[in-house]
Amino acid sequence: MSINSASLEELVDSWLQVDQNEATRTEIQSLWKKGDTKELERRMRPRIEFGTAGLRGKMEAGWARMNDLIIIQASQGLCQYVLQEVKDAKTRGIVIGHDHRYNSERWAQLTAAVFLESGMKVYLYRELVHTPMVPFGVKKMNAACGVMITASHNPKNDNGYKVYWENAVQIISPHDVGISQSIKANFAPKTWSVEQVHSSTNCVDVTEQMRKSYFSEIEKLKLSLYTPSTKPLLFVNTSMHGVSHPIVTKALKTFGISVIPVEEQMLPDPEFPTVPFPNPEEKGALDLAIAQAKNHHANYVLAQDPDSDRFSACELDSAGRVTAFTGDQLGTIFASHVFETYRDSGKPLSKLAIVASTVSSKMVEAMAEREGFRFVECLTGFKYIGNTALDLVKQGYEVPFGYEEAIGYMFGPEIRDKDGVAASVMFAQLAEILHREGKTIKSYLEDLYQRYGFFKTSNSYFICPDPPTIDTIFARLRNYNGLNSGADYPRNIAGLDITSVVDLTTGYDSNNPPTYQPSLPLSSGHMIQFRGEQKTDGTKIVLTIRTSGTEPKIKYYLEGNGKDSAQVSKLLTRVVSELGTDWMQATVYNLGHP
Fold first, then answer.
1. Residues 2, 14, 75, 152: which is the catalytic one?
2. Residue 138 has pLDDT above 80, yes or no
3. 550: nearest Cα among 101, 150, 154, 104
4. pLDDT, tens digit, for every residue of 395-445?
5. What are the domain boundaries of the chain?
6. CA-CA distance, 151 to 77, in Å (whole number)?
7. Is 152 known to be catalytic?
């Protein structure tokens, strides 16, 4: 049955025929009885689509939502695909973990039950874990794949199903397509019981073993210049009602560093009572932590998102003034210290590589050009950062660090995914090292600006819930001057000349004649990157505009760099204004803008 062509009654009937969860069956029956066709249409189509991010959505009954039936079908499809594609998959098994959200533990057990039903070994974490523990376990156990049940920093009503391949990195194409097709070929649920999870000898609890191994790897992140201070800095830490408090506390204690927890946000709570959007990047999300830091006269705030794969930080001076570091600033700080550590070890810089997503700051690129190590950019997301790192290792490079601007940081060779615990440990050590030198993280960043130039980002988005309108906006950008060439992009913005255009949707790169083929793979959504320059003073910008795969947004990532910080800041304001009024035509299309 095609969900798009079927009648609503057929969709409801097909749901009720297979769903054995009484709560979600009752939801659909109640809506049908009330005649709420509008809500049923939202619940029933389009079917939630499996992609490179796996699955993520609202927890409700229906083909378009996250629920038991969708989890079972996804697991059946994944299981059969892995058995087909991965050598010795049955004995190598799957690693499964979950966070504290509603349904997370049950869905981890349902996933395990499906794999057990097909005779696959299952390594199931029996306690709450942070997301990096799944790829860590996949690598350590040489498993065929991994699944983490989490919606990361999404609102409380969402949950997700994140898949890792046998290389311990999130899946990329063609596996997303292959798994999606396999799901459609294995719709009929084979089991609803989780009894095997508790009784089968094929279901192994590796929680304690992997936890000990993980902390052993964290200890290896100790920086050569770090020693515990006799007068240590004060750190306040927030876990955003997530799973990170015991893990971060123990990891930092290994280095002789203690933290003051934000008690209101310390324990796992699926209601997220103090932060409706439990994302350290969201405005106001760190307010409680900052207030506590001021009360304790603390030096820094550390923050992890609920599944603790992302990290953010703030610095407070003696007067209580707060510097909230952006994702790019933290990425640059980490990258610089990784470079300095590598250089001081005596290893050849020609063998050092650092990876960042293409929408992240170009400051690391400038650093690499000056210092002589390799910088490689890739598409957005750690599925690409991790795989790019693995490819570089095969080529003979060391890749001790990678990052994306959305506060995701990867350290060391054991986890090719972002890890908020590792980032917390690295940040705290660096802060202590600088403190002994009479410096702070902020002053260290300012020194980097002096050396490599001032870089400032201005990232945000336009809200557009209508996909055809988004297509129209991007079509206009590709035919901006009316030449109908398909590659007729804007030639200037805010007084800057556009010097290059890379369109990862159509496959066009103005820097690469005569083929004009981009070096990066194509994006599944709209994505265009522009570089511009003001010839009078050499000030430059990089502006990337892309659609979101999970939200009704046109996101933009804007960075300016030059010698004068005030001049760069003013320029970014003008670019954002012209981007909205002229390029996006926000008023014409009634686009929202925060």
1. 152
2. yes
3. 154
4. 999 999 999 999 999 999 999 999 999 999 999 999 999 999 999 999 999
5. 49-207, 218-322, 327-451, 454-583
6. 20
7. yes
